[in-house]
Amino acid sequence: MVSAVLLAAGKGKRTGVRKQFVRIGSRYLFEFGLKVLQRAGIEDIVLVLPPGDTLNVPGVRTVEGGAERMDSVYNGVEAAKGEFVLVHDSARANLSLDLVKRILETPGDVVVPAIRPPDSVLYDGEYVNRDDVLLVQTPQKVRRSLYLEAYRKAKASGKLYTDEGSLILGEMGIKPVIVEGERWNFKVTYPEDLEVFRRLKLERRVLFGYDVHRLAPGRPLYVGGVKVSEDFGAVGHSDGDAVLHAVVDALLSYMGYGDIGTVFPDSDDRWKGARSEVFALETMRRAREKGISVSRLDITVVLERPRLGGFRNEIVANLSRLFSVPEGNVSLKAKSGNGLYPDRVEVFAVVEIIL
User: Fold this and answer.
1) Mean pLDDT across the stretch 24-30?
2) Residues with Cβ < 8 Å from 5, sequence gap 6 or more?
3) Is 331 in contact with 297 (CB distance < 8 Å)?
4) CATH topology for 204-354?
5) Backbone CA torsion sign across 261, 264, 268, 274
6) What letters, b where the CB count within 10 A reaches 16 and e where it falls short, cover 208-221?
7) Among the residues of the chain, which ranges form H helices?
């Protein structure tokens, strides 16, 4: 079994802020690396937080950090359950799944990713042959028992190490196995690095969804998951919520699943009379697996009655919950249709996503 320790206990001395908790889109910086570790199939993940901080992250255990990075790693590794532990800095938020898999698949008690420097290297006023230099990255894979022993030796002698490979080499004499790192796996260290990451990561796409349903008496009418009428409702195999159908249709189509009718067909009795919130939650589960988050919803509802003004806040809040987007980024516009569409509800949805 392999565990992972994600370090998020830094004080942000060089950036001026605790960068791990800076929001990039809808996520904290540390969440980008966390999602990749989860996608790699690592079930035992320990998040190391600043002393005194608490954070509830589903499926993740938390521990407090220490005075130095080495101490924070120790706290995380000690809490981990696996024979091997993957230690990663949350500041390396552009972690790729390929790099994680390459490190996990490489045998060795200590496996360290590294890259060659692209520039000339000066040390103490003298040029160094850059072919002799490697720039060390994380995540680093270590045998748990070996790391704990090396740490205790270092603490006893008062030595300080900046990464796991140097600690085990210095205290145990075991050289790390080097694997090729990735230049994209850079560390957010200075304020400008945050802007580089923001521009790099926030790749946006704008999607379009549409749905229309005939209205008939004897059914409740749902708009965005909120019941707005008991007297008449949308005719459909499910509850006929045209708002949720339009958004779900846009997302499923973009992800390559076809449309809502392909994933939730009306030939399947499981969806007969089903609340469309089920479709929204399943679609968002699939989106998260692909690293997609919704950043903005702009929805226009054409509906003669009832007027939606009194339901607007409730609908916006529910859309925010279902699609994990801030309420301030949900726009809901209601049009009466000027009497042209008395027997139907029609929805146009613009969905902005972040990859």
Assistant:
1) 79
2) 45, 46, 48, 73, 76, 77, 80, 85, 86, 87, 88
3) yes
4) 60s Ribosomal Protein L30; Chain: A; (3.30.1330)
5) negative
6) ebebebebeeebeb
7) 29-39, 69-79, 97-105, 144-157, 164-172, 191-201, 242-255, 260-263, 277-289, 312-323
Among 51-55, 84-88, 91-95, 147-151, the minimum mean pLDDT is found in 51-55
Dihedral sign for Cα atoms in the order 227, 233, 236, 240:
negative
How deeply is 13 buried, as exposed, middle or buried, from its count of CB atoms within 10 A (0-12, 13-18, 19+)?
exposed
User: Which among 324, 293, 291, 352 has a CA at the least distance from the CA of 96?
Assistant: 291
- Parse the chain into domains and list their residue ranges: 2-201, 204-354
Number of Cβ atoms within 10 Å of the Cβ of 36: 22
Taking only the tens place, the pLDDT of each residue in 242-287 is 999 999 999 999 999 988 889 988 888 888 878 999 999 999 999 9
Tens of pLDDT, residue by residue over 93-124, are: 999 999 999 999 999 999 999 999 999 999 99
For 2-201, which CATH class? alpha beta
Given a contact cutoff of 8 angstroms between Cβ atoms, the answer to whether 314 and 226 are in contact is yes
Backbone angles phi, psi at 70, to 5 degrees: -60, -40
pTM for this prediction:
0.61
Does the bond joining 265 to the residue before it have cis omega, within 30 degrees of 0?
Answer: no
